[in-house]
Every structure is written in structure tokens, then in C-alpha cells.
Amino acid sequence: MARPETRRSEGQERGAGLERIRDAAIELFGRHGVKGTSLKAIAEHAGVSPALIVHHYGSKDGLRVACDQHVAESLLAIKTDAVRQGPQLDPVGMMGQLVEYRPMMRYLAKTLVDGSPHVNDLVDQIVKHAEQYTEDGVSAGLIKPSAHPRARVVVLVLFSLGTLVLHQHLKRLLGVDLVEGDGPPAAYLQAVMEIYSEGVFTPGTYENLRSYVEQLGEESDAKGGNDERD
Amino acid sequence: MARPETRRSEGQERGAGLERIRDAAIELFGRHGVKGTSLKAIAEHAGVSPALIVHHYGSKDGLRVACDQHVAESLLAIKTDAVRQGPQLDPVGMMGQLVEYRPMMRYLAKTLVDGSPHVNDLVDQIVKHAEQYTEDGVSAGLIKPSAHPRARVVVLVLFSLGTLVLHQHLKRLLGVDLVEGDGPPAAYLQAVMEIYSEGVFTPGTYENLRSYVEQLGEESDAKGGNDERD
DNA sequence: CAGTATGCTGAATGGACGTTCAGTTAGGGG
DNA sequence: CCCCTAACTGAACGTCCATTCAGCATACTG
Description:
- Two copies of one chain form a homodimer.
- The first copy, chain A, has 230 residues and is an all-alpha fold.
- Chain A is built from eleven helices and no strands.
- Chain A has a domain at 71-223: Tetracycline Repressor, domain 2 (Orthogonal Bundle), CATH 1.10.357.
- Chains A and B meet through α7, α8, α9, α10 and α11 of A and α7, α8, α9, α10 and α11 of B.
- Chain B binds a DNA duplex (30 and 30 nucleotides) through α3.
């Protein structure tokens, strides 16, 4: 090779590596999973050499941690930020509509399952946030009070995150894409809203199940295997 | 059926390989994911050599397909089988309590995300099953009728599968383990039941959101294209 | 008993991967 | 200008992995 004045072939500048690498990693980790993505692939996607990634992040795992942190911070920032979505029916479900955050949503959907500390922190804070949000809703008379407030919030958040994780199935079964769709996932939101508004069981069923479930509660109390958190 | 008494090194019998290998694979795939499990590890866990796995299943992917099939068939069998659990509040959530199926639950929880044809089929059939089950419930007056029956069923199934997939988080946040727990996941079931019985939103909120969500439905029907929201 | 199919293995192969390293290029401050 | 630092690379290394292969041992068949 001759010695060109600018060695970067196409518009690539020196020093833009760190973020570019991290974003490429989030993109590919989100699409093919961490184990399914090689440093070489990330390097190509970012227009750098594999060695540079290690130089910057120490190791593949170091890069993964950096991605975790960045995704957690970013998503938490816009969550805390504002109620950007009108009524926040299903915050997590709606967030995929914000185009800029789609790669992070994909990343979340993939990494929520193999559990890293930072992603766990993110989930914890989403729950915490939802707890506050729910309490406010109860005070404002928008949300019904609950006999098990914390458990309800946790379950609601996991419902929401769960459908995000399983968005491929939602797409296949309902034709609604939480991550790639170009509009609000209407059919999904309609169903969710109906469930959360009207419930699913009839009042009679409620009464029948109540005794059964309360009995469960007593059993597990007797066993003493339940620890309250925070 | 009588097996000859050939002693292998340590209690291992000849010819017991196929199932033993497949079960070991389900166990390890479920614990560490498919990409995170080597044939060597499976071989050791099954007490055979890696070569034998390939001999039987052709390739790692062949083994994976066999696992998919077996898990799908088994779980579908007991689902179709009977209502073994008293009131089937959350069939998927409760199924992990059946000790014999725990490895399969773990396997499901891991592989639901990276989507294989057989697992997709399984999900489809669970939905189909739930659709029937729900219709019956409606007829019997136990379950409220829905304006979007199919969407509601899909969402309910994905809620259930979603919490299964995220069972580690449920464990961390609520101390309830859907897969390893030794009793019914009481706190989880209580919350689920409350949500499904009473709903979450107050009637007033319902009315407010109704117009919003129905508007979504119209938009997606008309499909105008870009929607900018502040 | 001979022959063959089958369960099974150890060793070898080739490729992919994460990581290391020596060295090159550019930039900025003295 | 020189030197220091930091970005960056190609090549090499060692490891792990899925897969192949030749061959052994056992069981079945005629």
C-alpha cells in the first residue's frame, strides 16, 4: 500500500472509537446475543480492529459491562426524565417506539435473561420508579389500591418486561412489534388496557379463588421462606 | 426389555445413551443456554463421549432440535392432559412446581428468547389451548368476555411466559421462585389474581384511557405513516 | 461360529475466538 | 523540533469447540 494522506477509507475519524465501538456492541449484542457476537463482528461494524476493542475495554466482558452501564443509564434517564408518552399505559412497551432507543430495547430484551448486575440494577430502579408512580396514581384515584402493593408492582413490571423479552412471539402471534414497529402497538395496548381496566375474572370467580389463594399465603407464611425486601 | 448385566466403569449401562444425552442437554442448555454449553460438558454430564452425541444426533444443532421437540411434546402432553392444579390461575407459572418438569421449564425460559420453530409451535399451541380454555371460562361465567379475545389471550399467555423467562428477577424482587421453589409461588399468585380479578385502573381512568386507546386503533387501521408525538 | 450391525471411544482436524504484542501513525505541548 | 502519549493495527498465540475418523467391544442374526 502506498502512503495515503488520510488512511481512513471513508469518513472515519481518529478518536471516534469509544462510543462507536460501544454502540456497535449494543447493536450486535442486542441482535445476536452476547455469546453469539464476536469481537471481530463488532470491530467490523464499528470500522476498527478487534485489538482496539480490547485496548479500550480490556476484554469482551469489559465491553459488555460498559454496554450494560450505558443502556441502564440511558434508559433510566429518559424514564426519569418525563412522561413523554401521554398516558403511560405500559412504559416499557411504549418505549420501543422511540426510534433512538430501539437498539437499547433489543439489548435489554436479550440481556434481561442472562442477568448482569447492572441490568439487575436497572430493573430494580424501574420497579422503584413504578412503585412511586403507582402510589401517586392511587392517591390521585387513577389506580386501585392493592392488598399487596409491592408484589403488584413487581408483577406488573415483569409483565411489561416479559412481553418485551418475548416481542418476537408477540409479533408472530398478534402482528404487533414492540421494538421495530413504526407506530404504537395498538392491538397490544388495547388488550393490556382491557385487562388492567376490567380485569379478567368475573366477581364470582374472584370470591372462589380468594379463599384458595389466601390459603396459599398462609402456607408459605408458615414455612417462613419469604423475605421482605428493602 | 431385559437388559444384560454388562458392567461399565461406574454404573453406566450400554444403550441408555440417547435419552440420557438428551436429558443432560436439556439440563445444561436450560442452565447455561445453548451457546454457553459445549458438547463436552453435555457428554460429561451424561457419562459418554462427545463423539457419541454427534453419532446419535448428527450435530449440536440436531441435538438442540431434539431437545426442542421433546420439551414441546412433554409440556404439551401434561397441559392437554388434565387440570392437575386445582384452579389453573396461571398454568405456566404453576407448572414449574411439578418437580419432574423443572429442567424443561428452565430450558423453556432460556430458549423462548432465541426462537426455534419447535418452541414457536409450542407457544402457538399453548395460546390455542388457552383460547379454548378461556372461551369455556367465558361460557361458564368465570371469565369476562373481551372486546379483543384473541389479543387478550395472547397477552395473558405472554405475561405468564414472560414472568417465567424473567423468573430470576421475580426471585430477586419478590423472593418467589417459579422454577426452583418448593411450594406454590404464593406472593406471585396473589398479585396476579388481584390484577386479574379487580383490575388495576379505576373505572374513571378506564373511561379516560378508552378514547386514547381507541384512537390508537383507528390510527393503525388507517395507517397514515409518521406520527410525531411530544 | 462367522458376520454384521450398533454403541461407543480416543485421537486428530480445522476453524473461530479472545487476547497479546510489537510496532506504526497522529497530535499536542514543551 | 522532539518527545510523549494515545489511538490504532496486523500478525501471532493458545485455547476451546464441533466435527470426523478409524477402530474396539458388545450384542444380534443366521
